[in-house]
């Protein structure tokens, strides 16, 4: 049946593209209250489509912030239940002046649809929604489905724990399939088998109780900017290796399988660095693919201190600030990573330099879909059939917090099965989604749901 | 005659205090166009007082910005001509909420007059003005006088070169006496014999052509913040000594006289560091006084890069920025200091890190009133008589750009003879001026003008 469903989906590809355009016209920027109406309209649009398509129990799940959308189809008794994850919020469109066509006026150029949220992740979310609707139209789905379309993914899912807490029924399932989390290559078929974790730490540094005049005090007082620079410089060695003692101690060693998977998807360094105008860098003992997917990082995302306005101000600043995030490799504990970095900074701060820390939440560990996991086998089978190639197992360098949150809170694993590609300028001007990806997704999702229908629910939960 | 003039000035001390209050009520904030009316009213006030007091040729000197006020008394043929420098503009009063009494409502508490500009420098400027007027009233001044009351001191004197260029007659003199540039101690009488120079350099650093996603690129690309931190950290050693090779090469060695002068005015470290809540720091081989007056500095007044807003953003920033100013010791060339720092930074920047520089103007060299200078001898004699103590020769750690500008453009030396004290919260809330300083100034200025009347104009210009 899955092939017939795929055929029907492809037959109404133009209609689905029009639906995607309509969805992209709704400006659902979760971080900015000015877009509240766009958020509301987007929810209405998706809920109306789910209801119209025969999905039951369509409603909002409130967790105190932007609500998530749920809806269920449970007509496959004995079959496993899958939560289908997507998100309806998007990044802010700024800087507007760099867009070639307006961010909320979807525009097709050269086989791509340009709009904010096209790649991240309204395109892939709609593929999943339309696939389920098509199955329902054809008599039923091979598996039970609960949609979970989040409205706060782009702001770090602050209400997600509360939503999970308050609405356990809506999230009861055997595994999750995520429309978010795209493909790792524009040329090689890949299956995502993991992602790095993430934890955040902010700190401020103080050398005196007030800003000083650089003429009156300069030469005899510690400048907060200089001290901050020393501390930040101490985090890495010259080659870019992390220099914080003990930071890597709980990193799982890179095994043969991980090394082989990484080697199977080598980074084209000329293209990789050329696209961003940068030079090769980082832990020399590891390949670029390993550096960006398996090794942890400590990145100072922001730092500032003293006068940053126009012209010159001869201030000797007493405080400086930094925001760090760390990407975590498999095995690393987010709380431990934070603690080790805090201890390193405290140990390096000389007398007269006081530090204050602010932890950026509990953090997310790395996620791995283990060798032999039934979700992995199902996805590989589908990709082999739709592409006629064996997919490469790829880890994501980024973090998919829901994978860890759902594993931790609900005990379920996640298969990411999105169709975004890595060059589609997500979070940047001129975000786009390939029309060919829309087609590939509409071909693959029916096959995937059919494969998943063959799995034993108990085996999924044991995996 | 000078003692009689001083007596008469002191006799009308209350009237002069009322005049000072009236002057302080006029909000002459040069940096903010909203205060244009306050600037105009302040000019009118001072010009009216000069005219009323018998000063001739009172007028404005236009240089394209806030005009300066001039006026002359030239009734002492054969005697030297002194330019009396002061400024009528003040710093902005912000933050207003920290003032105990409103900044433009002068209020007397505990023998101090609190108001914006009281210490910097309307108090000392008015002492000079009233002294000259009192001499004129008594039949004439011991020297020829040209007032030069600037309106842009607090914004870096942008029009000063143009004013000097356009109005050479108004600035023809043998030396300058500045009411700006106060005393170095609240307990020991001092004479200022020099100040550090100043030069500014801004630079930006780039590691890629665009900001990147820390998940997709983290671990394989240089983070601009990390690179900026390394460069800033390379400017000093751990003890706070400047680590830029060659930077100190043109610094005049600290001689016996300089060391003795510095030792004669030791910094009370407990009070100095206690007042700012900081710990002792800086070149260990030199005393705190030497560190803050004779040694050069490189201070990063501002640095910033990446995301500095609320919350967390997992950006891997491609650019970072820094604003530096350097205080220069005697002998140092501002252009050379800039060049040496630029070369150091360029030499330390690894492949893949590009730097761009923006020089902050030509800079100002340090200023020194040499041993045996007739202005110095005159000032020392006056202070000895008014305090019954031998004044200590003190250098200022800050920069008095007019001293260097007048030396360079007009070939004349400057004696700073202001009565502000170093603890009077200039440029800060609750600025004040001591009423005792008003009295000391009114006693000392008549003596000074009389001493200066004994000098040979030619000797002044040769000094």
UniProtKB/TrEMBL annotation, chains A, B:
Residues 201-352 form the Peptidase M20 dimerisation domain. GO terms for biological process: proteolysis. Keywords: Hydrolase, Metal-binding, Protease. One of its GO terms (molecular function) is peptidase activity. It holds the Pfam family Peptidase_M20. Signal peptide: none annotated. InterPro entries: Cyt/Met_Dipeptidase, Peptidase_M20, Peptidase_M20_dimer. This is Acetylornithine deacetylase/succinyl-diaminopimelate desuccinylase-like protein.
